[in-house]
């Protein structure tokens, strides 16, 4: 192990905003993987306190951050800010890892992809479940033909409403359907290799009506190869639940069926309250490792911005379907996936 370099060694990474709940964890992983981390935030008090807690340098605003000759940036701002910050980072020559969803519109997602392509930098969407060992095993079975032709997929991504800007449609782009459809939608696109064509969805506000946004949602998808899929994207974990959320996936093929629970490795602990303590591999660490390695190798990271666009387009189609109470076509704009 002597002399083994971490993937972030010698790389300078900027964190743009601490607005997202995952920001502190991503900062910690960047540091653990050897990167020099700088941070900026439009909220100076939040930025300074969060940076101090994480042990990283707080440089102030985004202009000051992008002037520091960055190799890459991690965008943890509100969803509605992703396009603007990606375009600024790309113009500064930095690779981009942005929290999911990629954007709040197909137009913005395409603009982000175009900005990074023109600048010759990579664009990665934060889908850590791609790196979960259980999902990697499912992908190996599916892509290796062990399941035969995939006919159907079903998944659930329950969680708790994070509150704050996550429940603000203008900033988040929607509620639970925007927040929790995209993880499973990405996995389904990846496993099938097919393009989503139509979506039918229903949402409600029954679970936590005080948020005045969709907190329950069921999304049905048809893919270009005829595969069908269902996603439960509800914020159905209430405050007293012993864990924040989770994700499960079932894949039905002509030659086999497989079920995966990436969050199933856990222990039950009870003191003042009951909690599920998770252990095992950390998919987020491997996601950050892939981002840093892609910078070092000057290649496109995976999952890419185009992967993020497919998942976002499914969530946006779900809202249109809910409004029209009918199936709708998935709008991919001028994407190469169309």
UniProtKB/TrEMBL annotation:
Xref: SUPFAM superfamilies: Glyceraldehyde-3-phosphate dehydrogenase-like, C-terminal domain (SSF55347), NAD(P)-binding Rossmann-fold domains (SSF51735)
Top-level taxonomic group: Bacteria
Gene3D superfamilies in the record: Dihydrodipicolinate Reductase, domain 2, NAD(P)-binding Rossmann-like Domain
Domain Gfo/Idh/MocA-like oxidoreductase N-terminal: 40-126
InterPro entries, per the entry: Gfo/Idh/MocA-like_OxRdtase_N (IPR000683), Gfo/Idh/MocA_Oxidoreductases (IPR051450), GFO_IDH_MocA-like_dom (IPR055170), NAD(P)-bd_dom_sf (IPR036291)
Pfam families given in the database record: GFO_IDH_MocA, GFO_IDH_MocA_C3
Domain GFO/IDH/MocA-like oxidoreductase: 137-258
PANTHER family, A to Z: BILIVERDIN REDUCTASE A (PTHR43377)
Protein name: Dehydrogenase
Source organism of this protein record: Microlunatus panaciterrae
């Amino acid at each position: 192990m002597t002399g083994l370099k971490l993937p972030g060694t010698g790389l300078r990474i900027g964190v743009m905003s601490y607005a997202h709940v995952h920001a502190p964890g991503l900062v910690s992983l960047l540091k653990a993987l050897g990167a020099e981390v700088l941070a900026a935030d439009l909220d100076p008090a939040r930025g300074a306190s969060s940076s101090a807690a994480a042990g990283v340098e707080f440089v102030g605003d985004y202009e000051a951050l992008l002037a520091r000759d960055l190799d890459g940036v991690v965008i943890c701002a509100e969803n509605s800010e992703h396009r603007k910050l990606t375009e600024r980072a790309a113009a500064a020559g930095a690779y981009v890892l942005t929290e999911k969803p990629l954007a709040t519109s197909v137009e913005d997602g395409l603009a982000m992809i175009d900005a990074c392509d023109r600048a010759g930098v990579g664009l990665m969407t934060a889908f850590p479940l791609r790196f979960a060992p259980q999902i990697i095993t499912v992908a190996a079975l599916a892509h290796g033909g062990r399941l035969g032709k995939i006919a159907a997929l079903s998944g659930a991504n329950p969680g708790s409403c994070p509150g704050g800007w996550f429940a603000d449609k203008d900033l988040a782009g929607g509620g639970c359907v925007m927040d929790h459809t995209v993880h499973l939608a990405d996995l389904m696109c990846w496993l099938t290799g097919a393009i989503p064509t139509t979506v039918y969805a229903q949402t409600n506000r029954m679970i936590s009506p005080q948020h005045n946004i969709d907190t329950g949602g069921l999304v049905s998808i048809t893919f270009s190869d005829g595969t069908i899929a269902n996603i439960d994207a509800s914020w159905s974990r209430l405050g007293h639940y012993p864990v924040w959320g989770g994700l499960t996936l079932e894949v039905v093929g002509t030659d086999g069926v497989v079920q995966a629970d990436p969050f199933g490795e856990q222990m039950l602990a009870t003191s003042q309250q009951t909690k599920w303590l998770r252990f095992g591999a950390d998919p987020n660490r491997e996601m950050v490792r892939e981002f840093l390695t892609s910078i070092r190798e000057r290649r496109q990271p995976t999952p890419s911005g185009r992967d993020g666009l497919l998942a976002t387009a499914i969530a946006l189609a779900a809202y249109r379907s809910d409004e029209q109470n009918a199936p709708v076509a998935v709008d991919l704009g001028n994407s190469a996936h169309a």
